[in-house]
Design goal:
Two copies of one chain form a homodimer. By secondary structure, chain A is an alpha/beta fold. Chain A has one domain (10-281): P-loop containing nucleotide triphosphate hydrolases (Rossmann fold). Helices cover 46% and strands 11% of the residues of chain A. The first copy, chain A, contains eleven helices and five strands. The first copy, chain A, has helices at 10-13, 37-63, 82-88, 117-120, 142-145, 151-170, 184-196, 206-212, 215-229, 244-262, 273-281; strands at residues 69-76, 98-102, 129-133, 173-181, 236-240. The first copy, chain A, has a five-stranded parallel β-sheet with strand order 2-3-1-4-5, sandwiched between helices. In chain A, strand 2 (98-102), helix 4 and strand 3 form a beta-alpha-beta unit. In chain A, helix 2 (37-63) packs parallel to helix 10. The longest helix of chain A has 27 residues, at 37-63. The first copy, chain A, starts with 9 loop residues before the first helix and ends with a helix. Chains A and B meet through helix 2, helix 3, strand 2, helix 7 and helix 8 of A and helix 2, helix 3, strand 2, helix 7 and helix 8 of B.
């Protein structure tokens, strides 16, 4: 057990580096964690306050001019648990400090610009935690699998993405990109649950079954995207996600690590505290 | 004890109606609730899940075309606890279903439009809970007290606001307007705390003490605004807020009531569940 309660640190062992092979990642595994579900859930709850505190510091520091922000990019197949991460991990911090956006199929003004334009419009400001449920990566994932753009254009996008993220990182943004990795069978079981429960029907889309036919092609598209866009300034992490409790714990720890790297400080007041105490007393 | 755990229902007893007198509201009081702080906090926690469930239903129903949204407008003097409501009441629901916006002094493009323009830009979509930390009411509050607009213009704004809110209500928005009412002395104590604690310094602004000189004028401006803009379609509630736990419980109950009025239903699937189960099984 280290200071974060895991035998090994998620930001080290889950990171996509040289020679990464998606097919070698077991979606059932829980890297760095030997405990059971109850232990994982307990640990998640224990670190909630820590995450919440760091978020408040991040926000406070920005009021005094600190130029730091955190962006979590969530990708994964249907039912991979993106929404659960938002609800159970991001959901514990003050809503005032979170900018969440779910990217759907582009429409209206969005299609009148390059593919990064709509992403730029939703970036978190300084002091904020941004959370993207899907992202500009759809433009190299579903676009590749379903041939929505010419191959040459998709090929160009990896560099465009890297350039874009490099600029953001240079401007003070910590970028944490997460692929929630479930197995095809787990995806099936989760869709089955959506069909079995009337309060889940609204989450089911018949198109989800069609998309399952392309599972292998999606995995290939992910492999290429992960290889080509996992950078020092915007690394990818592949989080085994068949066990929801593990995925939540891992993403929480990735965020904690990123915030610890920022190490936001309570700002030094720009006013004289003693003078203000006297003024307040007389008011 | 009624079904909501309070002797009387906040949406009835806190509502601003005919002959309302702000000066007669005791900021220390806890209308409809005889219990102690511990009881109030326990009750708040008990109803968290209820609020969270109703929010999910609201969101789900909108995916099937239901045209309902909820807007909470929070007003109050500095330190009244607006941020605490966002954190502790709104904060329990899924961040994906919340649109929060804190309105500051208008700047940039905002001042190139009428005072309602920027408000319109941040309205919650169908299925969402919107939360305004300050709002268009600043244009009849600080504008009146600090003479930022001609009196004739301010006078015209009450009707403009009512017309605007009438339109929103007609479009399916439930509007819950809350004034968090603290006493001048409580405001002083809370500013004192911000000066005493280094981790609170960032929340302190020397201008807050200047604003205290105008406390009585602010109360007059509130009285006028409450009288003239508490309508059947967008009522005001004055919530005694010297006790933070009470204010949070009361606002939570107001939101629960509004959501119960909407009564959102899980949508009926537009697909044939049995057909989809067969398709999924074969995928």
């Amino acid at each position: 057990m280290t200071d974060i309660g895991l035998a090994e640190r998620p930001h080290e062992i889950l990171r996509v580096g040289q020679g990464f092979d998606l097919a070698a990642v077991d979606p059932d595994s829980t890297p760095g964690f030997d405990g059971a579900k109850e232990d994982g859930s307990r640990l998640l709850a224990e670190y909630d306050q820590h995450l919440s505190d760091l978020q408040e510091r991040l926000f406070a520091a920005s009021r005094a001019g600190a130029q730091d922000a955190l962006l979590l990019v969530l990708q994964g197949m249907d039912t991979a648990g993106k929404g659960g991460i938002v609800r159970h991990v991001i959901g514990v911090v003050d809503p005032q400090g979170v900018q969440h956006h779910a990217f759907k199929q582009p429409a209206g003004e969005e299609v009148m610009h390059d593919f990064l334009w709509r992403v730029a419009a939703h970036l978190p400001g300084y002091g904020m935690i941004g959370c993207f449920d899907r992202s500009h990566y759809e433009d190299v994932l579903i676009h590749r699998v379903r041939k929505l753009s010419p191959v040459a254009e998709i090929e160009a996008r990896y560099d465009l993405i890297n350039g874009f993220e490099y600029r953001l990182a240079g401007g003070g943004m910590r970028i944490v990109k997460v692929m929630l990795h479930i197995s095809r069978e787990e995806g099936k079981a989760r869709l089955q649950e959506r069909l079995d429960r009337p309060d889940k029907h609204w989450k089911y889309n018949p198109g989800d079954v069609d998309e399952r036919q392309f599972w292998d092609q999606y995995m290939q598209a992910y492999q290429i995207a992960l290889e080509r866009t996992s950078t020092a300034y915007a690394p990818w992490y592949v989080v085994p996600a068949n066990k929801k409790w593990y995925a939540r714990l891992a993403v929480q720890q990735l965020l904690l690590n990123a915030l610890q790297q920022i190490d936001p400080q309570w700002p030094v007041p720009l006013f004289d505290v003693e003078v203000e105490k006297k003024r307040l007393a007389g008011s």
